[in-house]
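Example 3.2
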Amino acid sequence: MRGINRLGWLMGVAVLATAQAAAAETLQDALALAYESNPALQQQRAQLRALDETYVQALSGYRPTLGVSATAYYDRYSPSAGPSLTSRTAQATLSATQPLYTGGRVSAAVRAAEAQVLAGRESLRAQEATVLQQVISAYVDVRRDTEIVEIRRANVDVIKAQLDETTARFKVGQLTRTDVATVSAQHAQARAALAAALGQLKTSRAAYLTVIGRAPGTLAPQVPLPGAPKTLDEAFDTAEARNPLLLAASLKEQSDQALVAQARAARMPTVSASASFSRGAALGAYPDNNDQSTVVAGVTVTQPLFSGGLISSQIRAALEQDNADRQALEQARRTTIQSVSVAWNQILAARAGLAASREQKEAAALAFEGLTQEFHAGLRTVFELVQAEQGVRDAELSVANADHDAYVADAALLTAVGRLDVTSLGLEARPYDPARNLDRVRGGPAALLDPVAGAVDGLNANGTPRRLDPHLGTDLGPLKTAADTGQQP
């Protein structure tokens, strides 16, 4: 009967443990929640939607404009002799203007806006990676600090038991007052460390709430992050193709090139067609003499001759801005190399430290067990026992910190190579599609002629429109030797 009760108790514990594990919040849950609700991400997405409108505004330079105006007049004439004359007239005018050729101004503005929109999308990717990395850090911080609190609490309990035993043995004359004071001091130190650990846990929980939007509950162990490069060469190649900050800098510089072309196009002639229809009507006593309709149509060619130095100044300013962003691109290139190298070396160090800490934990536990037996046999002092127990706790803390650091380093490497995103992580969250908003706002009948108008207005010296390439100037090959290759994390 007792065996049956014990079996039932064990089954109940197993069911309870399974239910708790099923109810535990996972890292994937936290990442998906932050991706859908984090205010920093929502702000960046709104800014990108605003940036989409600059592309639509640039496209409007290809499209016709329509306008209508209406005017009503009242005129009263009172001569010195004779009756006063009063007239009331009204006139409405419908006008239309269609740009035919702008010397490349509009096509350059469209290319610049397109590059800026694409750069904005890369900035959004960078913000997404930053938020996801913050979620990962907050998650593993809470798990690490929770584990540290448990280690500190266990340490307090063990030393309290040692203090009780030491006090009892002192009372029977087996130990000295110094032995009691040694353990008592260690107990006070352990309680202070526990208080500090509890404070750090509260801080980490607050950071978790800030980035994810809700307080952490029971957190399940994190699973390995997918998509990590196997070699350092692969990490550099992936970063060259996917690092969002590097691609954004490249696209920003290409936008500047288009703005230089736009500034130079101000010296070119422009051609536009216009037409207007006016209808006037008399509201007074003489409608036959005042009703009239007017139709006007024509083509206007404008050639700037002298701008007082304005155009030349605008060209020089655009060139210097392009030069500045070329330097920013080089800085982004170097920063990317540094980020990949640092993250890679941190992974190597963290994993080596984790392996060493686990060995330290096993050795410290074995040493403490032997010292405890020797202490009870009178072969070891209280001080030696206390130090051995502290060595076990220090080893447990080292394992907790090393495991945390290794996981954070993995996330940093994925961020550096551009793979810390919803798709790569396999999250159960719908990826935000930035192209959907742009397709929505730039559509309509007026957009049908945009490709033709752009092809005519945007011909370069070779007779073909220029195309954007987000990878211009991002070759990391020559600097791969900045870090050791061939090592695998």
